Fold this sequence. Notes:
Layout: E1 7-11, E2 16-20, E3 28-31, H1 34-54
Antiparallel strand pairs: 1-2, 2-3
Amino acid sequence: MKDYHINIFYSEADEGYIADIPDLKYCSAFGETPEAALREVQIAKEAWLEAAKAVGKAIPLPKYRPIIYQI
């Protein structure tokens, strides 16, 4: 199985980096560096998947692809 795509970007408002996983609704994390944001979102992903399994929520397959890969 492919893994989920992760976006990482700098947020002026938060003065740090945000990482999010588009396929997992509301799954995101903050870090002072891109590496820290990535580590935090990986922890958030595991928690998101565990919570979804615990309540019987369907877990989406990884399908998000940035537009540059859709051409």
